[in-house]
Specification:
The chain is mainly β and 290 residues long. The chain is built from three helices and 30 strands. It has one domain. The strands form three sheets. It has an eleven-stranded parallel sheet, with helices on one face. A ten-stranded parallel sheet has the order 2-4-7-10-13-16-19-22-25-28, with no helix packed on it. Helix 1 runs antiparallel to helix 2. The longest helix is centred in the first third of the chain and has 16 residues. It is globular and about 55 Å long. Pfam families: NosD. This is Periplasmic copper-binding protein NosD beta helix domain-containing protein.
Length: 290
Amino acid sequence: MNNKIYLMAALIAFASVGALLIQPTIASAQSSMIDNILNSALPSSNTNDNNQPSQASSSASSSAVPISTSLSCGQVIKQSVKLTANLDCKTDGIIVGADSITIDLNGFTLSGPGEKSSKVGIMFADNDGVTVQGPGTIKSFQAGALFSGGEDNKISRVTFTENEIAVFETGSKNIVIEDNLMFGNSIGVAAHSSSGSKLTTNLFKSNDLAGVTLVNSASNELSMNTIQGSVNGIFLDGQSTKNNVNSNNVLQNRGVDLNNGNGLPTNINDNVFSDNNCNTSVPDGLCLGR
């Protein structure tokens, strides 16, 4: 129940920044999206298709080397695993149940019941030191990956598509998101009350509302990412401070490429923008040579 309450509080906070996206019609679209998520809030407990909790069988709490195994939807994973087949779920996909393990998608696809569902592809609940690695795809969930608390987790070389939010982190620390492809989601990465995350060398393409949004988040680094085809490329709200946005290609977005608090001067919230290749920013002057 605590995770559910925490997530709902985070989503309410997202909804409260109604001006996140400058265009009123888009702001309305985001508000509607958040309302839909709240109305079908992510469950506090997770079950498989038979409504019985499922756990990966292992006498050890973790394993350094992923073990090839057949998984079921809603399974709680307590050891390192490697997928051996696609997983098509009507429930949540995989629930992380231990620290310091690896989930290797091994080229397979984890699919959910749709972006308007209340389901999550991979759920981290206060877990530390967990790695999700591709190649592989996570698609058609409300959140492709959800970090609720926890620190020092990593996602790399994964394709996220057709999710409401590809990666959603709330109350998390030091999350590494690198070398991923995120396309055709509503939002690529959304961070709330999170710090120390590093988003590097990801490709964000045609994520409708935003590539990356930070709300009340501090000391995160966004570098060497390519972001195209959203309303806002990168958005930081007025309560997000001391973030470093550098060396990104943020181009061909429909509204604003770089958005610091809808035009808030960067010295107010101490965010640093440097060497970003972009065409439009609020306030002016955040793009290289402009």
